[in-house]
Amino acid sequence: MYPFIRYASTIAHAALKAKKGDTLTFKDTSEIQFRCRLSDIDNFLEMNNGRVFTLYDLGRMDFAVRTGLGKQLLKKRWGLVIAGSTIQYRKRIRAFQKVTLKTKIVGIDARWLYIEQSMWVKGQPCSSGLLRTGVTKGGRVIDTAQVLAALGQSDWDLPPTGYVAEWIKSDADRPWPPVDTAD
């Protein structure tokens, strides 16, 4: 089940932080902390891999609210979309461990914001995800220049480089729709 209460609580905490002046720009890294709950674990008593992606939503919401993007989403009736993702898992997260979730933008092109998210336990990285995200209006992705302008960050430029650019290139080579390998 989707963690609606945690989601709402994350938004409320982010709004309180922003109200107290603890805001972010698109150049900053958001950090939130939580505990791995029983509802997050699988039969091996560790955080379920699918739950990791779900909890990454919390980090993106904290980032959106504290950067002012959340206000713009409401004001302009914009939405958010994930158009692609890749993840690596390196260390198990066990029940009740304290997790730090970090969210930052690692690239922007004309259409997409590339976000890196990671979960850490006791200063050790456990998972890292790279997501292609967009802001939508009427079900269509809008130009990132429009988003940056609404946030007063029109002058900010962060072209995808390194592994982000390599992922974009390799993902473009991926067939869509998927090739049916059944005989």
From TrEMBL:
EC assignment: 3.1.2.-
Residues annotated as signal peptide: none
SUPFAM superfamilies: Thioesterase/thiol ester dehydrase-isomerase (SSF54637)
InterPro entries: HotDog_dom_sf, THEM6_lcsJ_thioesterase
Coiled coil: none
Keyword DNA-binding among UniProt keywords: no
Keywords: Hydrolase
Gene Ontology MF terms in the entry: hydrolase activity
Pfam families per record: 4HBT_2
Enzyme class: hydrolase
Protein's recorded name: Acyl-CoA thioesterase
Source species: Psychrobacter proteolyticus
Biological classification of the source: Bacteria, Pseudomonadati, Pseudomonadota, Gammaproteobacteria, Moraxellales
